[in-house]
């Protein structure tokens, strides 16, 4: 089986989160001879396969087999891959069964390596991600099997294959502010305290504002408003309470305390309550680390391109590896149709991704 055939087989599995649709068992059988660690929690299946070729460091390839629901607007069955003019159409084609197929095939064909090679798969990346890679890494720490390096095969390329890898990700801070006033009659505004009027004076100072200047690798952290609501949907009653939600995709220069201080400065003198939570921590892998340099060399050799080092985009399971000190990068096919109808990937990209991973394994030094 070549890498394209492997991908087509995987795309036939309707593995909507957290269902793996049999893919874990299939990959385990496909990689015969690898040691196995399984972990299942709350309907989420996780699989860790490894082989110690020799003494040396441990390189792990990671990804998810689960996909988002197909939705509407498809021109073909999303779980019956359509191949047309060198393009494969199916749910998960880009995000991220192409990456999984590429590293599974590359690892399967490896005959020698200066250390340990492994694969970590989960069926809970597109969901809450509580019982997926996060849980498996906790288990790997317990049994002393955490890798030194990880490559997460999320789609990272922008205009053409090989043009970008991710060496880090921004964090994500979620916040809710409840502003309390005094409900009243619209005809007697002087007898009420309208939180909408209060927030109207504050919004120009906070909406979309940068909390730091960013740096060479990270864009500035911004205070992004996502929802504001108040009132009873009537025109003659002013509200007594307003609720506002926001998100900050934070760089390593901004943390929750900084966000709390920012809100305090601008809401001083009002009756407000703030709730904050961090759903992802920011991280960055040193561009001079072994895994980044090895990936750069492999991309240059296969694609004749120098890949840009990026930290853009949302969150991924790479954040869980980074929390354990694992030097982590992300590289995969182009990211332009993920989660969309008629999600697609070119066969050329899939074959080149397999070549990049094979080249990296062969020359990991």
Produce a short descriptive summary:
The chain is of the alpha+beta class. The chain has 9 helices and 19 strands. A hairpin with a 2-residue loop joins strand 4 and strand 5.
Polypeptide structure, described:
- The chain is α+β, with helices and mostly antiparallel strands and 365 residues long.
- The chain folds into 2 domains: 3-169 and 282-362, Aminopeptidase (3-Layer(aba) Sandwich), CATH 3.40.630; 172-280, Alpha-Beta Plaits.
- 27% of the residues lie in helices and 27% in strands.
- The strands form 6 sheets. A 6-stranded mixed β-sheet has the order 1-2-6-3-7-18, with helices on both faces. A 4-stranded antiparallel β-sheet has the order 12-14-10-15. The protein has a 3-stranded antiparallel β-sheet with strand order 4-5-19.
- Helix 1 (3-11) crosses helix 3 (97-108) and helix 3 (97-108) packs across helix 9 (347-362).
- The two termini are 29 Å apart.
- The mean pLDDT is 96.
Please tag this protein with its features.
365 residues, Aminopeptidase, Alpha-Beta Plaits, 2 domains, 6-stranded mixed β-sheet, 19 strands, 27% helix, 27% strand
């Amino acid at each position: 089986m070549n890498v394209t055939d492997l991908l087509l087989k995987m795309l036939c599995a309707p593995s909507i989160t957290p269902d793996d649709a049999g893919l874990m068992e299939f990959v385990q059988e496909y990689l015969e001879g690898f040691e196995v660690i399984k972990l299942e929690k709350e309907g989420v299946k996780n699989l860790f396969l490894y082989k110690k070729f020799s003494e040396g460091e441990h390189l792990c390839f990671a990804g998810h087999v689960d996909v988002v629901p197909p939705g509407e607007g498809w021109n073909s069955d999303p779980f019956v891959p359509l191949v047309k003019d060198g393009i494969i159409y199916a749910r998960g084609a880009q995000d991220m069964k192409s990456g999984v197929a590429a590293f599974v095939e590359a690892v399967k064909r490896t005959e020698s390596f200066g250390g340990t090679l492994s694969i970590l798969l989960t069926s809970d990346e597109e969901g809450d991600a509580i019982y997926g890679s996060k849980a498996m890494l906790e288990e790997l720490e317990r049994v002393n099997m955490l890798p030194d390096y990880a490559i997460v095969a999320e789609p990272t390329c922008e205009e053409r294959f090989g043009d970008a890898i991710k060496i880090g990700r921004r964090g994500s801070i979620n916040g809710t502010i409840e502003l309390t006033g005094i409900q009243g009659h619209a005809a007697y505004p002087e007898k009420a305290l309208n939180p909408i009027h209060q927030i109207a004076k504050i919004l120009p100072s906070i909406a979309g504002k940068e909390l730091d200047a960013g740096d060479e690798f990270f864009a500035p952290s911004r205070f992004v408003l996502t929802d504001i609501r108040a009132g009873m949907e009537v025109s003659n009653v002013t509200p007594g309470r307003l609720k506002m939600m926001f998100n900050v995709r934070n760089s390593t220069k901004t943390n929750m305390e900084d966000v709390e201080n920012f809100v305090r400065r601008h809401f001083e003198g009002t009756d407000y309550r703030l709730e904050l939570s961090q759903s992802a921590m920011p991280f960055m892998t040193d561009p001079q680390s072994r895994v980044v340099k090895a990936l750069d060399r492999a991309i240059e050799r296969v694609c004749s391109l120098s890949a840009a080092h990026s930290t853009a985009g949302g969150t991924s399971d790479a954040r869980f590896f980074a929390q354990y000190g694992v030097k982590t990068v992300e590289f995969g096919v182009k990211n332009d149709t993920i989660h969309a109808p008629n999600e697609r990937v070119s066969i050329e990209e899939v074959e080149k991704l397999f070549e990049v991973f094979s080249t990296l394994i062969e020359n990991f030094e």
